[in-house]
Amino acid sequence: MGPGAIATVPGRGYRFTAPVQPSHAAGFAWHQRAGSPVLALRPRFCAFVVASLDGFVAREDGGLDWLQEASTRMPPGEDCGYGAFLDGVDMLVMGRRTFERVRSTPPWPYPAKPVHVLSRSLDGVPAGPAGDVTISAEPPGNLAKRLQQQGMGRVSVDGGKTLLAFLREGLLDELVVTTIPVLLGRGRPLFGPVERDTAYTHAGTRTWPFGFVQSTWRRA
């Protein structure tokens, strides 16, 4: 970087002092914070999903009775890490069906997190109790750029079609998949068809005595 790029701050450590100019390189953006430009990385899009042993998230008719039955084996207060996952995200992005399902079972579970709904059919936020909710029909790539400008860091993605859309655009950075020990035989798959391979690395696996197995995968 050349001489003078880093200066010593007595009693504190070091400081980067070289002039910095905005770059148009992919994956970076600049946004204003307290009147100064701040370099922002693209948000990391993460998903916390549950699937059967044969890779289905619901029955063909959308039924979740198998998941509800399996949940009865969980001890009180156990959430398999979902609370910690939610604490670690800045906002949530979900599809219309997921949003409507969440709204139908009050109370609203995300009072402290902004939620963005990707939908072509919703014209506005429906009346009723909800938190900070916005709606658009923009492609995941456009949304990613906008959230990058806003300085969002880690974003949860939920909903089958929404997950697939992010995966197809190469935007799904982390997957936390909890496998329920039941074979459904048929149903709605965790992921749909994609045009190219997407490699992930294994970041860890947890198990519980009631049979759930949870693996975390990060984009390679």
TrEMBL record:
GO biological process: riboflavin biosynthetic process
Bacterial bifunctional deaminase-reductase C-terminal domain sequence ranges: 48-197
GO molecular function: 5-amino-6-(5-phosphoribosylamino)uracil reductase activity
Domain of life: Bacteria
Organism: Ramlibacter algicola
InterPro entries in the record: DHFR-like_dom_sf, RibDG_C, Riboflavin_Biosynth_HTPR
Pfam families: RibD_C
Identification of the protein by name: Dihydrofolate reductase family protein
